[in-house]
Amino acid sequence: MSKQLVSFNEFLVANKTSASLVQLLEQITLASIAISDHLKVGAINDILGSAGSDNIQGEVQKKLDIIANDEFVKYCSTVPNVAALVSEEVEEIYWLKDDPQSEDLIVYFDPLDGSSNLDVNLSVGSIFSISKIGDDFDKSNELSILHVGNKQICAGYTVYGPSTSLVVTTGNGVDGFTYDEKSKQFILSHKQMTVPNETGEYAINTSYYQFWDTPIKRYVDECVAGVNGPRGKKYNMRWTASMVADVHRILVRGGVFMYPKDANNQKAGGKLRLMYEANPMSYLIEQAGGAASTGYERIMDVTPTSPHQRVAVLLGSKAEIEVLNQYHKEAE
Q1: Is residue 196 part of a domain?
Q2: d(Cα 272, Cα 60) in Å, to the nearest integer?
């Protein structure tokens, strides 16, 4: 008996997703497919490597960072209900409407996360977050479109690896889809993804150990100590230098991802951006039964102050995040 395949569009319709959101998500999938196609021939078409410019974060832009950004803007701009776009790669907010209405949509996105992996052919991804303009929008203050994470109506990412996978939440759990080259559609492949409460795996860049605050050092030291340490069990460490890939692994088999605020990034507020990295990934993790914190507060309760604000990120299995929160509290 053959398995009945469910396309992403069919899934959205069956779950009574609003027409405007369906239209936007369809365009995001088209942008993701276009980006995937660029990645496959990056070396052949000489679009790997640096573009010779920096983004708003002061980070060196790859040629494919710019190409991926352009694809997102091109496709999302075709949706009538999208009022604004906020991209990691561009300082200014892209305004698509002169007179936004409360039900219009904002898309925050990182068009190509983990682009340092491109030259060595490792997994990268795209991250997006969607919110409504809202009733409190003030035309004279464009920063009023910056909403706390708990106002998101949808979040997701695409990971470009051995297969191209799309993972999405609209507030009713988390579902994963795999791109089928034959039908040119994303097909439901991972129903109601969940993060186990406990884990024996963590992801962090240990080369920054010297810069970490005491709570992070304590947690990692205890994990490294394994069965003979205070945690009394073995832990594995994983790190891919691509948030999308690390979070995808957590959604598939559990774990903890950490990019803390430390002595090296403290003045900036952290490393990862709140609006288009921390918030959407936190929404996904929480919808899958996990937790996401700065160490001191829930990430989706952090009040945004700028489109490119940075924040500490600790997310994954709930029991481990509770331990990390407790260690931060004890260190105060």
Answers
A1: no
A2: 15
**Apex 40 CA angle, 38 and 44, nearest 5:** 85
* Mean pLDDT along residues 258-266: 96
Name the packing angle between helices 279-287 and 243-253 (round to 10°). 10
Encoding tokens for residue 296? 């001191």
Number of Cβ atoms within 10 Å of the Cβ of 289: 16
Question: Do 326 and 230 sit in the same domain of this protein?
Answer: yes
User: Is residue 73 a part of any domain in this protein?
Assistant: yes
Q: What domain range is 288 assigned to?
A: 201-331
Rounded to 5 degrees, what are φ and ψ at 93?
-80, 135
Specify the DSSP element, H or E, that contains 178. Answer: strand 175-180
Digit-coded pLDDT (tens) for 46-78: 877 676 665 666 666 788 999 999 999 999 999
Tell me if the pTM is above 0.70.
yes
Q: State the pairing for strand pair 82-87/105-113.
A: parallel
Other CB atoms within 10 Å distance of the CB of residue 189: 16
Residue 91, pLDDT above cutoff 80: yes
Query: What is d(CA 273, CA 89) in angstroms, rounded to the nearest whole number?
Result: 12
d(CA 132, CA 320): 32
Give the CATH number of the domain where residue 69 resides: 3.30.540.10
How many angstroms separate the most distant Cα atoms in the chain?
Answer: 62
Rounded CA gap, 272 and 278, in Å? 7
Helix boundaries (H) for the chain? 8-14, 19-40, 63-76, 214-225, 243-253, 279-287, 318-331
| CA–CA gap between residue 9 and residue 71 (Å, rounded) | 20
Q: Are 199 and 255 in contact, with CB atoms under 8 Å apart?
A: yes
pLDDT single digits (tens) 126-151? 999 999 999 888 877 878 889 999 99
